[in-house]
Amino acid sequence: MATEHESAKYHVTGEAIYVDDMQVSEQLLYGKVVYSPHAHARILSYDINKALTIDGVHAILTYKDIPGENQMGPVFHDEVVLAEDEVIFIGQAIFLIAAENKDIAEEAAKTIIIKYEVLPHVVTMEDAMKSGRLVQPQRKIENGNVDAARQEAANILNGELKTGAQEQWYLETQVALAHPGEGQELKVYSSTQHPSETQALIAEVLDIHKMEVEVEIRRMGGAFGGKETQANHTAIWASLLAVKTGKPVKICLGRDDDQIMTGKRHRFLMRYEAGFTDDGLITYMDVEQNADAGSSTDLSMAILERAMMHAENAYYVPNIRIIGNAWFTNLPSNTAFRGFGGPQGMVVIEEIIDRIARKLGKDARELRKLNFYGIDERNEAPYGQIVENTLLHTLYDQLLETSEYEKRREEINAFNAENEFIKRGMALSPVKFGISFTTSLLNQAGALAHIYKDGSVLINHGGTEMGQGLHTKIKDLAADELGLDPEQVKVNATSTAKVPNTSATAASAGADLNGMAVKNALDKLKRRIANSICDDFNKESTVQSKPEEIEFKGGKVFDSSNTDRSMDFAESIMKAYLNQVSLSATGYYKTPDIHFDREIGKGQPYYYYAYSMAVTEVEVDTLTGHYTNIRTDILHDVGNSLNTRVDIGQIEGGYIQGVGWCTTEECKWDKNGNLLNYSPDTYKIPNIQDIPKDFRINLLEGHPNGAKTIRRSKAVGEPPLMGALSCWLAIKDAVSAAGNHQIEPDFSLPATNEVILLSLDKIHRKLKSSE
Amino acid sequence: MSTNNQITFVLNDELVNLNFSDQFGETPITTVLNYLRSRPGYAGSKEGCAEGDCGACTVVIGSLSDGQISYTAIDACLVFLPMLHGKQLLTVEHLGNSSHLHPVQSAMVETDGSQCGYCTPGFVMSLLALYKNYNNPSREVINDALTGNLCRCTGYRSIAEAAAISCANDGQDQFTARESDTAKLLASIDSSSIYIDTKKHVYFRPESLAETLDIKKEYPNILVINGATDIALRVTKLKEHLPEILDLGNVAELKEVKESEGAIHIGAGVVLEHMKTLVQDQFPALYDMLAVFGSKQIRELATLGGNIGSASPIGDIPPVLMAYNALIVLVGSDGERVIPMREFITGYRKTQQANDEIIKSVTLPLAEDNCKVQSYKISKRKDLDISTVSGGFSVTLGQDGQVTDVCLAYGGMADQIKRAAKTEAALIGKPWNRDSIEAATNLIDEDFKPISDARAEAEGRTVMARNLLMKFWSDTI
Ligand SMILES: Cc1cc2nc3c(=O)[nH]c(=O)nc-3n(C[C@H](O)[C@H](O)[C@H](O)COP(=O)(O)OP(=O)(O)OC[C@H]3O[C@@H](n4cnc5c(N)ncnc54)[C@H](O)[C@@H]3O)c2cc1C
Ligand code: FES
Ligand code: FES
């Protein structure tokens, strides 16, 4: 089944309502956050009195005005809501202003005087690692015996690889609207991926019960992980101002403020060593992953954990040691971003294989195949889970064929032989992505389904809609379960008042978890309806219909062994109502059979794996460093797709977002800790001209999920992003062609045109000096 | 000129008179986007950046000329309200609704062109302009029309497909049906000069050059704007007040284009999208540069005079004008004077323009047959990006194949657009071959000491500058 996005018609007409679009009473105040211009400083004194006298300013808050805890760290409580006497990154909130319009708020902000004593700070990865300051203790995952394998290795290779930060760049910046009600009541519309946590933190900061706070979100204008924890901040600030002023308050961060104040995908600096046989089989790998956590922990440990658990990506490495460090820097706390450490984890082994191939003079795809996880053997992941039902070999065989890899490789070689300044490159890269929150208890979800007397159905569930099509999938699923058309079902805005204590919509698990919870609720309702109509059917009759034989299909409810006994769905609902049957039910689901012991780094953290494979071909102008994506082929495993249109959209969009991380999206800081690329003027996400000239996406057919997920589907949100590593590797391949594949290009990620040109410059100099 | 303090435009199909004397509400520097979003029922247009880079705010402007309405997509976040005077402003709300979709909207639904939907109204409006102007556009035209719209969700393929599907016809729609009524409404608006004087702002939008020069004389420090694509950011980003503005957008003389023997004269007020078509055949290097200049939405607003007048070290047009040895025509209270582009810029955002002058036009002489001209732009993203390093190069070869004249004008390498003087000198008299080029590229390091910034490090810039010379050579042999 493939329906359009449930909100598509509202999107294209501008009717879709986002938080910033909501019509609010004339009392609405605009919130503004005054933040630190220093990466590290002591606040010596400040003066807000003048600002307070400006006409139209309703409140200016400092940390002293916080009724509850001055804390908004989601997992570890190491992040203040408003700075007290010290600021630890540029963009850290110090004061909150509520004013009648944005201009007044700006004016007030300019009037506030703060005196600082500037203190030493840490901005670069190198300095962070030298400082020795980790945000949480080091982590380790180990399997086999690396030291013994090193002794026996035929070949050893080592290196260092840096990957850059990436800004989520959701089109809709962080936004929240807090509406005070009676007593302590507060209703907050927040563009958040995690309403329950937003609610919990607001309650803690205000020192009120969670029952007083309702957080609601209809849809986000993109999130990509950036609103998993850091949407909390804006929501908390708006709530503080709303409670203080007694008026609705909206905070919508301007683009520059959003980029300056919020965290990004973690920068990593990786050091690695690997041993391999003369055939290119990897015998051991020793990796140290250093992540830039920023100034507090946020989700860094979970992200690092995922990076560590994806260090071997699709390959079996018998002896492996992965050390993970999350370092403190004086930057905004880095946070979730689609892939959640996975991309950084995987890129190292992809680089290792690429280097081995160059050393051995082989096509890297052969070595990838050689090192893939086996089916029945060579299938234990470093953390002890057995990689079952791997689809790597299936994907590889199909994709190699459909992408015409061999033929194109020859064409590329011929092209490169004839062209000096333009070079082509191509690469294949696999993705094996573990599905489940690695903090096992988070793998739970709730739902609340109502059927109204007219037979229309309203579904509430704990997942949030950020464009990924979750509500579309849920709506289709619910309709199908009840035998209705999707038009008869509506998915409600997500609200903490409807479904409590939910997990974030993250880890690609939205449909897996919430789909099951919704099904559970609907199963209950169907049973009740079945009982109710059997009572009716069976009344004054000797033929007895059995509730378990009642089916819901084609808008009808009927006895499958006696199809004359049938009625319209709406009629069955009215009957149930008249029979005094509850037409509202909750649903619940938790993922079975998963566990992980962090202390020893072992367990069964993932319910299953999702697989993908991509081949990308690029053309690089070696004089400008500009590259063109000539063709990309992706073959992707979504099990039985819940909605092929939504899934293909996720794959395309995820790949392009990954390409941005790999190519043009660069975050740089000056030595004072100022982000230099703080607006789209200098921060460049892909645009329409950057997509592959020929973009071929296929879903792997005939492979339902081996795990018992909803309709045997697989998660699709994150895995496609990492297919973009094929683009990074293809660019590297083109650069390598300039040195006839004899010289290992000096490379980092993103491969901006500057990186490409400097790498080529080195190759040319090496070629010259060896002439 | 009388103070009218009022502008008139057509919002969708309704005539709107906006008065600026009110103490609250709109000012002359309120952007069209903020104006729309502050009105009930107009939240469809989104703000994604407030600087012209994302297109979420795209609206379509209908302009009347010769009884016909032409439609262009622009970024509402960069346009000040008085610039709307005499125009039609079309917003997404007017295109269709969820029960009656416009063809571009239904195509977007059909191809899954939206995911989160936040970029979508902007794309839809860009598509509307495409729909009205092209029948069966090529993929190149589609990409060009959508370069100014960022989407973080879809990966664009579906949106390009929506463009192809919906624009495969002659662009008839409800606007066509109403066109004559709208034209009448627009024609009813007095399009002469506008003079707004509130307590906080004066804003002039004169219709003639004479008036312009008078105002310039009377207000020596007045801020001149034309497309305002540079200046609007001082309002949206730096939150400046800009108390005095002289808007050249309605001065007919500045939009004139003339051809003479061996040259074309382009008015400073010509927008770059129009200029692109003017230079396509005879000045290919300029065309190439304009093809990667900003986005279509930007080029529909930005003017030639604005690009030269901002005298930015990374402005894209001046290096190419230098390569073509163009002439800048200035006009002031004492009349006109002509300065070669190669001498016009004198320092960081400094030019030879006097305080009472404005740029009137640019004279572009045709390149001689033995002169080769090329332009290059290296930017982090190929399209809709500011140059990291750019080049406008020309070389003239004598009959013996030796270099008789060469101009290597670089952007992004110094605090102003600058020629590589030593490199040029080294090439004079040399044969145009690889050895000469390789020897000359070493001098780039002596010509420039570039800075490191958000776009690139100094080392990277130097490599780029050297490479561009090599590229110029390889493209001209
Ligand atoms: C998203 C975006 C993308 C951009 N991309 C590019 C790009 O690719 N390449 C590039 O070079 N620039 C780019 N720019 C910068 C800008 O668009 C150009 O410089 C543009 O040509 C300015 O023209 P304007 O008419 O909008 O100028 P305005 O903003 O109106 O004015 C700019 C300056 O020129 C002066 N000026 C205007 N007209 C005259 C005149 N007739 N005589 C004397 N002085 C005058 C003004 O006083 C002001 O100082 C971009 C800007 C944005 C917002
Ligand atoms: S809001 Fe981004 S271009 Fe106008
Ligand atoms: S659909 Fe989300 S940004 Fe385009």
What does this structure look like?
- The complex is a heterodimer of chains A (771) and B (477).
- Chain A has 19 helices and 29 strands.
- With 771 residues, chain A is α+β, with helices and mostly antiparallel strands.
- Chain A has three domains: 27-120 and 168-261, Aldehyde Oxidoreductase, domain 4 (2-Layer Sandwich); 268-438 and 598-769, 2-Layer Sandwich (Aldehyde Oxidoreductase, domain 4), CATH 3.30.365; 444-590, Aldehyde oxidase/xanthine dehydrogenase, molybdopterin binding domain (Aldehyde Oxidoreductase, domain 4), CATH 3.30.365.
- In chain A, strand 13 (268-276) and strand 14 (282-294) form a beta hairpin.
- Chain A starts with 7 loop residues before the first helix and ends with a helix.
- In chain B, the strands form five sheets. A five-stranded mixed β-sheet of chain B has the order 2-1-5-3-4.
- Chain B is globular, with a radius of gyration of 23 Å.
- Chain B has helices spanning 32-37, 103-110, 120-133, 139-146, 157-166, 174-187, 209-218, 232-236, 272-279, 284-291, 296-299, 304-309, 317-323, 341-344, 421-427, 434-447, 458-476, and strands at residues 6-11, 14-19, 58-65, 68-75, 88-90, 194-197, 202-205, 223-225, 244-247, 257-260, 263-267, 327-332, 335-340, 345-347, 350-351, 358-365, 371-378, 389-397, 403-411, 418-419.
- Helices cover 32% and strands 23% of the residues of chain B.
- In chain B, helix 2 crosses helix 5, helix 9 runs antiparallel to helix 10 and helix 16 (434-447) packs antiparallel against helix 17.
- Chain B has four domains: 6-93 and 180-247, Roll (Ubiquitin-like (UB roll)), CATH 3.10.20.30; 103-172, DNA polymerase, domain 1 (Orthogonal Bundle); 256-365, 2-Layer Sandwich (Uridine Diphospho-n-acetylenolpyruvylglucosamine Reductase, domain 3); 371-476, Enolase-like, domain 1 (2-Layer Sandwich), CATH 3.30.390.50.
- The longest helix of chain B has 19 residues, at 458-476.
- At the A-B interface, helix 1, helix 17 and helix 19 of A face helix 2, helix 3, helix 5 and helix 17 of B.
- The structure holds flavin-adenine dinucleotide (FAD) and FE2/S2 (inorganic) cluster (2 copies).
